[in-house]
Task: structure prediction
Amino acid sequence: MSEAASPAPPRSAWHTGLAAFCLLALVFTVPRDLFVAGPRDVEIWLGFELHGAAARWTAPVHWAIFAFGAWAAWTRKPWILPLAAAYAFYVALAHLVWSEASPHGRGFAMGLLQAALLSIPGWVLLRAGRRQRAAEA
Result:
């Protein structure tokens, strides 16, 4: 006699929200990067601007990150919440670097403020991941 497979746990609001955010980011960035001249020609990586062909060639990497995040969150991969938190901290650091390194930035103080605010989702996602692991244990 075989045991019935246990049903998958219900999708948490965190996974659903993260999947929706990644999907919306993908839906927003792909057309913008393909069809809007200004944004199409600039990509930011670790706070440094890439222009022209370099920006156009690296834009699909951002798309892949969001597509991968949407898939992982929707399929409830256990590592997606800490990975999304790490990405949020990366974005926060990139804003700090961009504010200082770019001629379009607004200086270190504004970059620090942006980094602090953009770190909040990272801390929230880390906490959600810890709670999820504790609930599953």
Observations:
- Residues 13-136 form one domain.
- The chain has one domain: 13-136.
- The chain has five helices and two strands.
